[in-house]
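Technical note accompanying the year-one report. For the benefit of new consortium partners, we illustrate the data format agreed upon in the data management plan: each record pairs a sequence with a structure-token string. No post-processing was applied to the example shown here.
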Amino acid sequence: MSNALEIHSLMRFLDLGRTPFHAVQQVRTLLFESGFTELEESKPWMIEPGQAYFVVRGNASVFAFRTPMRFSPDTKLHLVGAHTDSPALRIKPNPSVYREGYHLLNIEVYGSPILSTWIDRDLSFGGQLVYRRKGERDLRTRLVDSNTVVRIPSLAIHLQDSEKDSGKVNPQTQMMPILGLGGGDTYFRHLLESHLEPGEDLIDWDLQLFDTAKACLSGLSSEFVLSSRIDNLAMVHACARSLQESPAHSSNIVGAILFHNEEVGNVSYQGAESRFATQVLERIFSTFQASRDLYFAALNRSFFISTDMAHAVHPVYEDRHDASHRPRINAGPTIKSSANRRYATEAITSARFREIARTANVDLQFFAPRNDQRCGSTIGPAIASQIGIPTVDVGNPMLSMHSIREMAGTEDHDSMIRILKTFFAQE
């Protein structure tokens, strides 16, 4: 049996974090348990030394931080980050399609999921509803997840044309889940309205499909965790749990920034390319009456650890990795580097992370892409360029990335949390 301490907490987090909105709600719960106070972007902030706060943007991104006991000219930032979104199937604004007596849901592909893995799965849908109470002008949101099961059935082998039906799944014509039988154009809306109270009017929604299967352990010694959304909710959980147990610093600011929309390029109101992080940081420094000169100087002294899951070497596709950069599951967190700046890692930031890992007594691995393959990216380059802070890109190795059901190591999760806790504890 695995000796990992955090794995069952992670599994609960994965099960409940069905959408980015649900994931941020789980982060909220963890932070409230540790005495954090929620701030609103739309109101003035009253921040005190030695306290813990967080602010949420768009219900899908969150910036949580601890203020120093005292602000000084030597104050710096110890920040970690991850992204709350995962590849998914999002329900379009006009969702109902009727064919051959079936009521289908019209979906849009979000990010780059492995589409074939969503076929023949028991799916449901959730996210947030936007509504208005009668007599009020303000819009409100409500977090929802449905008990309704939908399914994208495969075509029977006897009906397949070897040429016509081979190859990739067509996302426009072959990925509509079956909601039920029948016709009419109001049923789906009525289904959503059942989540509202009398006197509340449904205005809009942001909903996506999710796998109803729960996270579980596998392997001869329960060394693997299997679940949806491991990329990247495992790193969100690691960041949140590490910050929960971080100490109040004498003069440094520690924090975790969790962004939405990384899977579609970070460019949004709540993405890593937005002004969310910089605006929060500027407000923190302004509260302590620090000049912009001190703010920019502090950024240069600071460090950001961008955490996103990494590619483990596949036992039957080992040639897809560079021969000397083949991370293995449960062999330690991975530093990711790219000469083409797909990752933010520099030699100096890699060295700093290695020193933190050495202090935490955690072994590390390294990933660099093959020269003949494309490379993914993370929030790291966006943070390094938008905030102007030295950044390293790291993550735990996993298999089946972007599948509806992914696979990672139980021991690696504890190792990453130990490194992040060590980082937060440093003066």
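Partners are asked to follow this layout when depositing records. The chain has two domains: 7-86+228-425, 88-211.
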